[in-house]
């Protein structure tokens, strides 16, 4: 058995996820009591559960560096969350601060995730893929993923991450 196959086999078969949607417009609409559609969050939950994992909860927050950090730190304190998936706030607009918020909290960054994500995105959207700042890394033995806010980007990112959950968690906890 090759090392990556061995690690995957030793890794946990069960993992609990938390999905965080970062969107000021949706957050403000929800604050006004309006019904909010979160298609990207819905796609994430569907794919995670379809892969046999459980989603413990979902959170909607605005594009705010300190709120994003606070949200991650609170989730890392929980003993029952293995993977935190953020959607939104990864672009290049001034308000897109998810990457800046999360990167300093990571113990290790999985640079290959962003590289492969952009390569796959390039095959779908062309050169616009250079503006994607998808991110993944490990913090406190948990996997943290930041995906662009479009449903298709969530699909692309989770197609990369979900098969490797046992492998990543095994190594992150070693």
Structural notes for this entry:
The protein has 174 residues and is an alpha/beta fold. The protein has one domain: 3-Layer(aba) Sandwich (Molybdenum Cofactor Biosythetic Enzyme, Chain A). Helices cover 46% and strands 19% of the residues. The chain contains 8 helices and 6 strands. A hairpin with a 2-residue loop joins strand 5 and strand 6. The longest helix is centred in the last third of the chain and has 15 residues.
Q: Helices, strands, pairings?
A:
Layout: H1 3-10, E1 16-22, H2 24-31, H3 39-50, E2 54-61, H4 65-77, E3 83-87, H5 98-102, E4 108-109, H6 111-125, E5 135-139, E6 142-147, H7 151-161, H8 165-172
Parallel strand pairs: 1-2, 1-3, 3-6
Antiparallel strand pairs: 4-5, 5-6
Helix pairs in contact: 1-8, 3-7, 6-7
CATH homologous superfamily name? MoaB/Mog-like domain
Number of strands: 6
Radius of gyration: 15 Å
Proportion in helices? 40-55%
Unreliable segments of 5+ consecutive residues: none
CATH topology: Molybdenum Cofactor Biosythetic Enzyme, Chain A
CATH architecture: 3-Layer(aba) Sandwich
Strand residue content: 15-25%
By secondary-structure content and strand pairing, the structural class works out as alpha/beta
Q: How many domains comprise the coordinates?
A: 1
| DSSP summary: helix tally | 8
Average predicted confidence as pLDDT: 94
Strand order of the largest sheet: 2-1-3-6-5-4
Query: Termini separation (Å)?
Result: 19 Å
The outline comes out as: globular
Instruction: Return the string of H and E elements.
Output: HEHHEHEHEHEEHH
Largest sheet: 6 strands, mixed
The CATH class, by name, is: Alpha Beta
Protein name: Molybdenum cofactor biosynthesis protein B
